[in-house]
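Blinded run. Sample ID left blank on purpose so nobody reads anything into the name before looking at the predicted structure. Input follows.
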Amino acid sequence: MLLQIPDVLPADRVADMRAQLTQADWVDGRATAGPQAAATKRNLQLPDSSPLQREFGEEIIAALQRQPLFMSAALPLRIFPPMFNCYLTGQTFGSHVDNAIRQAPGTAHRLRTDLSATLFLTPPEEYEGGELIVEDTYGVQAVKLPAGHLVLYPATSLHHVRPVTAGARISSFFWIQSLVRDDGQRTLLFDLDSAIQHLSRDVPDHPSAVQLAGVYHNLLRRWADL
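Blinded prediction complete.
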């Protein structure tokens, strides 16, 4: 399942973040890539020691925890501390699949990457190219979202970033370990949760809503991986 989540952050806050990030001390993005990814990775990245990365990352996680659509779709158990990258004119990232396991910088905590997320921070009209291309069983999709919007997709997907041909593209990216590792099961739970919410809204107090909620939680109980 590939899902777009709008308005994770308000426009004025995104603009303030982007202004500060534009002045940040970026490093070569290959510094955090494995040998295979490094061969095709051409971008800039904030270092793990960056105070902005820690501050903005915590803000993004807090915003996501208040976002019902994200919580329903991702069923997050752990969220990797958000990182930030910048693609200048001519920079790109070739086709790759994200590492299955990530270790949070400076800690002993490891996370299984069930879902990948990109939060766009630059308005699409300010740069050309730079689309995120995601390939999976649902086909090939090109993603280029308004600033403050996020795309969520299975970390098992082959994906790449097309070259930026003008301007600069700044984004945050990170991974989620879900309570439900299987994407198909997670999608069924999301669809069921969405149907329950619509039923509860359109037909308040309908007894089927309680029954369906019971099915949802029993499936979650069966599939949850704690």
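Unblinding after everyone has recorded impressions. The chain has a mean pLDDT of 95.
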